[in-house]
Automatic annotation (TrEMBL):
Substrate binds at N82, H88, D95, I109, S110, R119. The keyword Methyltransferase does not apply. This is 3-dehydroquinate dehydratase. Pathway: Metabolic intermediate biosynthesis; chorismate biosynthesis; chorismate from D-erythrose 4-phosphate and phosphoenolpyruvate: step 3/7. It comes from Streptosporangium amethystogenes subsp. fukuiense. One of its GO terms (molecular function) is 3-dehydroquinate dehydratase activity. The active site is at Y26 (proton acceptor), H108 (proton donor). Its EC number is 4.2.1.10.
Length: 153
């Protein structure tokens, strides 16, 4: 059997704009900076990092299917997922996570509950193992750590 060694970090639409998009809300770290902090955390835990961003819902669904199959094959432990605005709209992403039984920790950099009411509902939370909201980009690090702890139980 192949040892479990990987963790996915998936990012949805507009997260490629991190660093320049509303820095008062999302901070000044860029997406490559976030990838670097995720890589540091994964490496610390002995995990390989598979890091992706897409502005396209179908691409995110394909990665969820891939990650779900790789969890079932014992190759990865799950996915940290910041679905961006698809959080509030996408039944298809909800169904992809539910259908693959992929262990997901949902992350939002901003505290969506302090923002517009349309950001208060998540289609992802009911199928996520947990959520980390409003702790900035540090939430990614915490989510990797949480998935790792879950994988040990
Ligand atoms: C976000 C919150 C969403 O409401 C928003 O559409 C984003 C980013 C966050 O990380 O805080 O694109 O997911």
């Amino acid at each position: 059997m192949i040892p479990v060694t990987g963790v996915y970090v998936l990012n949805g639409p507009n997260l490629n704009l991190l660093g320049t998009r509303r820095p008062e809300v999302y901070g000044t770290m860029t997406l490559p900076d976030v990838e670097e902090l995720c890589r540091e955390e994964a490496t610390r835990l002995g995990l390989d990092l598979i890091f992706h961003q897409s502005n396209h819902e179908g691409r995110l669904i394909d990665w969820i299917h891939e990650a779900g199959a790789r969890v079932k094959a014992g190759e990865v432990i799950g996915a940290v997922f910041n679905p961006g605005a698809y959080t509030h709209t996408s039944i298809a992403l909800h169904d992809a996570i539910e259908g693959t039984e992929l262990p997901v920790v949902e992350v939002h950099i901003s505290n969506v509950h302090r923002r517009e009411s349309f950001r208060h509902h998540s289609y992802i939370s009911p199928v996520a193992r947990g959520t980390i909201v409003g702790l900035g980009t540090d939430g990614y690090r915490l989510a990797i750590d949480a998935l790792h702890r879950m994988s040990l139980t």
